[in-house]
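Design a sequence for this backbone.
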């Protein structure tokens, strides 16, 4: 299967947390949307606000328990297949997926990371940026590969790092850009304009 599909795409969002990126994807790709629609939200945290947000929006939300990575991935893979998902978006999903899963979803699995990759990969990206003393940071939406935040970048958006910034103030500034970058990256992939 390749993009463009010639029909509205079916999107899944995989999230563990508060789900603000999910909210921006839902707003851009609502049920019945012409380009794409979010048809499924899944995550390993049963009480994650992201799952509640999806249900409020009338989108199916499934808790997929994380007993082992293999178990989680097998169930998630089956769920995505069952729902006919074309593109899966990790949005605040706090686990690392295996090469098996990433290989199966090659070119159809995206992630958002709060730094200008390849800088500041992994955990505490804002802390890393502040410790390094950079004058700008930002966010990256990228294809997921078997590494941590190493896949091909699709969209980046930049913000200044301001005097007196804390991890919180910088995170807030970057998050606003994530909400713009993620839908933009999804559109580029669906139109076949950026390939893995
Ligand atoms: C975002 O900053 C994202 O870059 C990071 O986790 C955060 C998720 O936020 N991977 P939200 O759950 O989408 O609000």
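Sequence:
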């Amino acid at each position: 299967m390749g993009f463009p599909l010639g029909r509205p795409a079916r999107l899944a969002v995989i999230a563990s947390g508060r789900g603000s990126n999910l909210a921006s994807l839902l707003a851009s790709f609502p049920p019945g949307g012409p380009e794409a629609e979010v048809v499924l939200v899944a995550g390993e945290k049963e009480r994650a606000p992201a799952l509640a947000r999806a249900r409020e929006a009338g989108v199916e939300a499934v808790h997929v328990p994380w007993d082992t990575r293999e178990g989680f991935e097998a169930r998630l893979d089956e769920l995505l297949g069952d729902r006919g998902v074309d593109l899966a978006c990790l949005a605040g999903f706090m686990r690392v997926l295996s090469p098996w899963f990433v290989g199966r979803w090659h070119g159809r699995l995206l992630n958002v990371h709060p730094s200008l990759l390849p800088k500041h990969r992994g955990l505490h990206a804002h802390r890393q940026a502040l410790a390094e003393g950079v004058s700008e940071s930002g966010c990256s939406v990228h294809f997921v590969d078997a590494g941590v935040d190493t896949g091909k970048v699709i969209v980046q958006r930049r913000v200044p790092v301001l005097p007196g910034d804390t991890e919180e103030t910088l995170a807030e500034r970057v998050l606003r850009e994530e909400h713009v970058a993620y839908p933009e990256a999804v559109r580029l992939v669906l139109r076949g304009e950026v390939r893995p």
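The chain has six helices and seven strands.
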